[in-house]
Amino acid sequence: MPHSVVHLIGPGGAGKTTVGPLLAGRLGWRFMDLDREFIAREGDVAAYMAVHGYAGYALRNVDVYREVMDARTAPTVFALSSGFMTYAATMDPQYAVLRQAIAHDALTALLLPSFDLEACVEAIVQRQLARPYLAGNRASEEARIRDRFPLFMALRCARFDSGRTPEQLAAHIEGMVRERLDESGACR
């Protein structure tokens, strides 16, 4: 049986790590979070970036993604880091191909609280500033989502409004996954 993967992509605060375990439970699959996998291998993300810079972090994050994907033994719902789909295409020789494969995969789900820029910015900034472990400020969080929003909107994958309840969103994504998989677990 193939080991299918649902990639949950989107900015920080879009609901990936909230909806991911719910979706995995509904499907009977494993849930993995790339940020947690990175932390398990490298420690605190901010401390890693302080030493290696954002480009160094992005390179290592792509490596961690590959390590996790290579080690999978079961179907998985995989929440990617908020910036994973927005790294510079030239940062790694194979990254552009990897990003394109994820973006075009039938089981990739982009989560955004709104498909309208201003509404998305407001929702994401509020959610991010409510996280006590983030040292962001309104201006930096707003600039980040404004920069990334067009990149996310340009992706050719299924899009989901994460402004609904996590349970509703998980059910909606589950429907897409079940519709696109055949009985063997392969994409139709």
Outline the structure in words.
- It is a single chain.
- By secondary structure, this protein is α/β, with parallel strands linked by helices.
- 55% of the residues lie in helices and 11% in strands.
- It has seven helices and five strands; from the N terminus they run E-H-E-H-H-E-H-E-H-H-E-H.
- The chain has helices at 16-27, 34-42, 45-71, 95-104, 117-129, 138-154, 166-180; strands spanning 5-9, 30-33, 76-79, 109-112, 158-161.
- A five-stranded parallel β-sheet has the order 2-3-1-4-5.
- Helix 1 crosses helix 7 (166-180) and helix 5 (117-129) packs across helix 6 (138-154).
- The protein is globular.
- The relative contact order is 0.21.
- The mean pLDDT is 91.
Which range does the strand content fall in?
5-15%
State the major sheet: 5 strands, parallel
Given helix and strand content, the structural type is alpha/beta
**Gyration radius, in Å:** 16 Å
Low-confidence stretches: none
Number of strands: 5
Q: Tally the helices.
A: 7
Which H/E pattern describes the elements?
A: EHEHHEHEHHEH
Helix content: 40-55%
Distance between the termini: 14 Å
User: What's the overall geometry?
Assistant: globular
Strand order of the largest sheet: 2-3-1-4-5
Indicate the mean pLDDT.
91
